[in-house]
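Dear colleagues,

I hope this message finds you well. In preparation for our joint manuscript, I am sending the 3-isopropylmalate dehydratase large subunit (Mucilaginibacter aquatilis) sequence together with its predicted structure, so that both groups work from identical material. I would be grateful if you could confirm receipt.
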Amino acid sequence: MGQTLFDKIWDAHVVSSNEGFPDILYIDTHFIHEVTSPQAFDGLRDRGLPVFRPKQTVATADHNVPTWDQHLPIKEELSRYQVDMLTKNCAEFGIELYGLGHPYQGIVHVIGPELGITRPGCTYVCGDSHTSTHGAFGAIAFGIGTSQVEQVMATQCLLQQRPKRMKIEVNGQLQKGVGAKDIILYIISKISAAGGTGYFVEYAGDTIRSLSMEGRMTICNMSIEMGARGGLIAPDQTTIDYVKGREFAPKGEEWDKAVAYWQTLYSDADAQFDSELYFDAADIEPMITYGTNPGMGIGITQHVPETASFEAKEQGSYAKALNYMGLHDDESLIGKPIDYVFIGSCTNSRIEDLREVAAFVKGKHKADNVTVWVVPGSKQVQIQAIEEGLDKIFEAAGFPLREPGCSACLGMNEDKIPAGKYCVSTSNRNFEGRQGPNSRTLLASPLTAAAAAITGKVTDIRSFLQQEELVS
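The corresponding structure tokens are as follows:
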């Protein structure tokens, strides 16, 4: 029987396997940031242990950093403390840090791929659930807890049970105005925020193959939002072309050897998955969430589901979510006034996301009732956006380009959405208070977010695209 892509990579990294026990899995690269690493460093210090392989640990500051005036001291005391501790710990344990002011600083799941650290066939972990992003390269990547962060620091290995394998295949032509974010929000809306629990997902099909690497990263990034352990996509020429020439990518003969190996990384035709799901790309329209988990999503033209359509045991929590969001049964979200738009996060803060938004907003201006935050995912993305003149387009549209960081994806820094306000966000989670206490989050694609910023309300991006076609 053939093997899945996941099993090929997993088996190549198992140090020891004994029946009835977790496998000991070797980790190629460990990403760390300021939030989940301090306790792990303290644990090593208490036990008198070094970081076992510091050169295979990549550190950056992202969650707690401000996105204005990064050259100044951080204002929030806890944020400043955490960033300062990361600096201290990395210096003490011999880990190179891409901190504020460093040309490689940025969101941990953005800098790995853009620097060529993330490659096919490898294993990656980080004390951050959205480590699944790196699976877009045909790698096993997943988030871990703080005690496991310490375990990897001390041994470069992890105790892990092998998860079940799921294949999600998407085929067909996408509608205009529909992109990777819409694909993954659609899948999660169909299988629920718990539909992938216990699985590692491989995404396949010609629709997935048609996506750029940045689109594939968006897909894999949100695997965790369906409860999956992670997600991955088999590498192909698109992957190889993306990695080639990047700062830490293999060079010369090493590159040729690496590519030869990467070309063996695919699921065999007779490989067996524990679960298989199939979707038609033509069924996907621009998506938006209405509730308090990413599974509560609808196509932009659809209405909020009726409470009575859910099982009796689910109706109480559903009604609670609608109440929190200030929405009601059978409501259309089109035309819903909004207050903030956030374009950023490890889901949608890469250069292609910014280019797409800039192309749409060029010659337009944001609505007066909306505050817009455009936050690049890294210093590299920020510099490239400025070199391409995107910052000028954003500025003219009332979309100031900020400095890199996690920003309003989560309420851990200065960029918080005020209580009761609605934010159309390109981030990955819409939990209660995720973007600030009592804030209300509507997850969407960069294009849908940009359209809401221009109109001041939830808008079907396709209405703009149709008008532009008529004009042209």
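For the figure legend, we might mention the following. The longest helix spans residues 77-93. The domain at 5-276 is CATH 3.30.499.10 (Aconitase; domain 3).

With kind regards,
E.M.
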